[in-house]
Structures
1.
Amino acid sequence: MKFKKLIICIFSSACVIAQAEIHGYPDGPKLPGVTYSVHDPARPQPPAVMTGGAVTVKPPSDAIVLFDGTSLDAWSPGFILKDGLMIAAAKDVDTKQSFGAVQLHIEWKLPAGRPINGQGGGNSGIFLMGLYEVQVLQSYQNPTYPDGQAGSMYGQLPPLVNATSPQGEWQSYDLTFEPPVYEGEKVIKPAKLSLFHNGVCLQNGESYLGPTQHKVLAKYPPKHPLTGPIRLQWHNDPVEFRNIWVRPLGSRP
Ligand code: MG
C-alpha cells in the first residue's frame, strides 16, 4: 500500500513538473546582443497585462480594406468566410496586392473551448511582405518560449508585455512596418516593427534580424523584394479574423 502511494506521489510530482515546463528549444542558435537563444524556454516571460480587449478602429478613408466581413476577394484561396468572419483553414493566404511600408489593423480571436498548449491549438501569424512574422497566439495563461508568444517577432524578440485576452474574446493588433533598406547587397536599415495589442505597446520600433525563421537565426539575404503580400498563417488552428485594413505608408509630400 505504502509503495503504491509512493508511486502515485512520484507520478503526480512528475506531472506538476511537466506542466510547469515551458516548451522551447534550449539548444538553439544564440541571438545577438542577448544571452538567449532562438526559442529559448529560459527567456523571462513578459509580464501579463489586463486590457479592455480589442480596440476596434474603423478603416480611415484612405485605407485599403482587406476584409470587412463580406468577401475574401482581397486574398488568395484557403481561408473560410463564415458568419462575417475570416477563419483560418487549409493553407496560408496572401493578399493579392503587394505592400512595402504599412500601417495595419486586424482583429483576431480563438474560439472558446478549443484545447491549447503552448504553440499548439491557437496559432496563426501575420507575415509582413510574406516574410516577417508577427506571431498570433492565444497566449493568455498559456506560457511558451517568449519569442514565440502573441506579439513576438517570431524567433527573434518577445513582446514587452503579454496583453493577450482570455480565449474566446476578440483582440486587436495595430502595427506599422517598414521594409529593410539595402545599398547593393548590404542592409543599411533593417526592417522595423511597432505593434499595439489591444491598445498596449508590445514592440516599439524594433528591428528584425532578417526574414522569420523557425529554429534558425534569421539573417538578411543579399537580395530583397521592395514589396510583398501580407500573409495570414494557417497553423492547423481555426483562428478567426475580422476588420482587416491596411494603409501603405509613403513619404511626406
Ligand atoms: Mg504563428
2.
Amino acid sequence: MPLDINSKIKGVIFDLDGVIVDTAKFHFNSWKKIASEWNYELKYNDNEKLKGVSRMDSVLKIAEWAEINLSSEELEHAANRKNEIYTELCAKLTPEHILPGIMSLINQLKANNICIALGSASKNARLVLKKIGLLTLFDVIVDGNDVSKSKPNPEVFIKAAKQMNLLPKNCVVVEDAPAGIIAALSANMKVIGIGKSNELHTANLVIENSKNLSIDLLNQISG
Ligand code: BG6
Ligand code: MG
C-alpha cells in the first residue's frame, strides 16, 4: 500500500531496544543481576520505568529503589558491569532476531521515499545494529553517544529530525517505552506505541505486536 498522497509523513524514527529487536529483555536480565547483588528484586513494573532511560540514569534509579547508598565510582562500576553482562547477551544476536513486521515496514517506507532514522538511548545501538545486519540501512542514526539527556527528554528525536532535514511535525516515532512516547510527543511528533495499550495509552496509536506495523497505520495518524 502506498503512503496517502495527503500524508504529512516524511520520516519515521525507530527506537531500537524492544522495537527492532527484543534486547529490552537483555537490559532487564542484566539489571536484575546487579539489583540482586543489592538484595533488590527488580520487577516488571520497575523495568517499564527503565525502558528508554540511559545507563547511568537507570543505575541511579535502581540504587534508589534498593535503598543503597553508593559513591559515584561504585555506581559507575555497577553500570559498567551491567554493560558487560548486556554485551555478552548481545553477542548471540543475528538478523533472525529482527522482530516481525520491521523489515516489511522499512521496505515499504523505502519504496515510498520516506526517510528512516534510529533514535535510541543506547550507546550499544551500533553494535546491536551490526549484529542484526542493519547498520547501513538507516539514513540517520542518533544514539546514546549523541545525546546528553535521556528519554523522556525529546533531544534524541529532535536531533534525528534535524539530521534528516525534516520538521518534527513531519516525523513519526515508533516506540515501546512510556518514556519514549513522552519524548516523541514533546518533540511535537506523532508516535506509534508497540505494547500494552494501558501502559502506552498516550501514544497516537498503540498496537500489541510489531507484526501489525504497516504504511496503513502511518496513514491513519498522519492527519
Ligand atoms: C534504551 C533501553 O534503549 O537504552 C534502556 O531501553 C537502556 O533499557 C538504554 O538503559 C541505554 O542503553 P545502553 O546500551 O547504553 O546501556
Ligand atoms: Mg525501547
